[in-house]
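Catalogue entry: protein
Contents: sequence, fold tokens
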Amino acid sequence: MEKKKMAFAGSWYPASADECESSIQGFLKEKQGPLEGVFMGGIVPHAGWYYSGSIACRVIASLDPGKGADEKIDTVLLFGAHMHKQSEPFVLTHGAIETPFGDIEVDRELADKIGAGISIRKRTPLEFPDENTFELQYPFIKYFYPDAKIVVCGVAPSFFASTIGSMAVEEAKKMSRNSRIIGSTDMTHYGPDFGFTRAGTGEKAVEWVKNKNDRDAIGTMMEMDESAIIAEGLQNKNMCCAGAVAASVAACKKMGAVKAVELDYATSFDKSASSSFVGYAGILYSLS
């Protein structure tokens, strides 16, 4: 079976299963931990685990139906990728994805259906890009849902994003897949390293990112408005993967989600003060 190899293990996150598990157990004890409820999907950040792993971990853990639940998660739909508005969306077609906890099998049947239903580039494991937007989530997915398969899509920030999300869920429902949705994005990339200094420098800039620019983006996520998400991300540079967010929101709504819950927010500045920093948000979408 063709396999997408790890590219960031040992640098962005631990390389061994024991080290990953130790980190995950630590993340679960931070702040409020995973949320209880019936969540169809969520938005996660994708920086190195030191910076944003806790938020991503607790969002993904919150998707668990719970001990004793009759249902199990068959397939995780993961949307991400750094893309321009004109970029061509893509999907991983088959094979498996390597993680420190073992391989995640691609849901080939569902990926084929998605690829047949819309114009999307089909990529094999050997052709698939090394994307931190995806790879930083794989160990969490394998740890919490060891038997689930996966579909991985790169989604551009265009009107087509919501179509991809909705159609993916439609096909999953036709195949009786019990699915969960994960959208991967970081928030504002601020400072000279990123060529974005709209609010100047220093503490004033940090407060602007936290309380204005990222807060506006989170507002569109909470309102579950795909068009506003795309526009906000493109205009204010506060979602590096706005297409993935829009696709995820559309997918969650297709699954019946009607409410958004903010699990957490942080910035890399909180861990390491610098003139250049990045925001991270964790959002969950529930049925009630």
The chain is about 40% helix and 20% strand. The radius of gyration is 17 Å. The longest strand covers residues 277-286.
